[in-house]
Amino acid sequence: MLISLITVSYNACDSLEETIKSVRAQEFKDFEYIIIDGGSKDNTSMMVKDYQDLISLYVSEPDGGIYEALNKGLSYAKGRVLGFIHANDRFAN
What we know:
The protein has a four-stranded parallel beta sheet. It has one domain (about 5-85): Spore Coat Polysaccharide Biosynthesis Protein SpsA, Chain A (Alpha-Beta Complex). The radius of gyration is 12 Å and the shape is globular. It is α/β, with parallel strands linked by helices. Helix 2 links the parallel strand 2 and strand 3. It has helices at about 15-25, 45-50, 65-75, and strands at about 5-10, 30-35, 55-60, 80-85.
């Protein structure tokens, strides 16, 4: 069963990278990983290129805030189960 995991961020390059690393460390691999970025001005778009093997979809464009970004992520999701992990969040080891 496919899980759609969605992360939204804005100017959170360093914490987003830690979030991505925690997603990569999971043993369960039947998921798509969607990152919706609100058009960050930091190095986020460069950093996510290092993880393109893990990230199913990366969208970086200005939006109306976190709730619009969450809805945008949901519109791309294909999984039967949805999960959210925001920049600054980590999965437990």
